[in-house]
Design a protein that fits this description.
By secondary structure, the chain is α+β, with helices and mostly antiparallel strands. It has helices at about 5-15, 20-35, 60-70, 75-80, 95-105, 140-185, 190-205, 205-215; strands at about 40-45, 50-55, 85, 110-115, 120-130. Strand 1 and strand 2 (about 50-55) form a beta hairpin.
Length: about 220
């Protein structure tokens, strides 16, 4: 990729600061910048749970669902233990025979899956599909690897910003709950926090959720 093209991709991927919207940008831009890519999705695994976090169209969603329904497919394999999985021809691929037969029936002739470099225990994989036989040549594979690196940086930045916003929101809710307890029971700031923390421990409930209950008008003993 030329420097100008790389800069344009970085700019597009960085337009959104929320993780969910960045993921959508990642799949949309893959169709534009990876040769042979007709449709795209991103699989995300958090712990033992795998989900489709973003997709470009309904066909990609159907082909994705086949991987879950059949329990096999290139993106699931990449999430487990591979960096990249190329399927030049769904008619001759033998690693995932049930999925490739079903994908071919949907019109997918080839695919390319590349892992995104994000932190454990959060894993993500870019799943690209082509309607053409051998849709991803050597140049496309090279481009997809470069693109995956750019997408990974954008995703990590968005996750950090989303996390910071979530942490700030949690602090605001806890602070509001402390204020309510201080006014209601004449508690000090520190004592109000201890009441929230103790209730959190006693009920095995997140501190943020206990605080939200107070803000919503629930009684701590209820």
């Amino acid at each position: 990729m030329k420097d100008v093209e790389l800069a344009r991709i970085v700019e597009q991927l960085s337009t959104e600061t929320e993780e969910i919207y960045t993921l959508q940008q990642v799949v949309d831009q893959a169709v534009l910048h990876v040769p042979g890519c007709d449709m795209c999705s991103v699989f995300v695994r958090r712990g033992d749970v795998v989900e489709v976090a973003a997709t470009t169209d309904a066909l990609a969603s159907r082909v994705d669902d086949l991987q879950f329904d059949l329990g096999e497919g290139p993106c699931l394999t990449v999430l487990d233990d591979h960096e990249i999985a190329s399927v030049p021809d769904t008619a001759t691929e033998v690693r995932w025979p049930r999925w490739t037969d079903a994908a071919r029936a949907e019109g997918v002739r080839s695919s390319l899956s590349v892992r995104l470099a994000v932190d454990s225990p959060y894993f993500a994989c870019l799943n690209m599909y082509s309607r053409e036989l051998d849709g991803f040549d050597t140049d496309a594979i090279d481009r997809s690897i470069v693109y995956a690196r750019l997408a990974s940086v954008a995703l990590l930045q968005a996750r950090e910003i989303t996390g910071l916003r979530s942490a700030l929101q949690n602090r605001l809710i806890i602070g509001a709950a402390q204020g309510i307890l201080m006014e209601r029971y004449g508690l000090s700031l520190n004592r109000a926090f201890e009441v929230l923390r103790r209730r959190s421990n006693e009920t095995n409930t997140k501190l943020r959720d206990v605080a939200q209950g107070v803000v919503d008008g629930l009684q701590l003993g209820g």
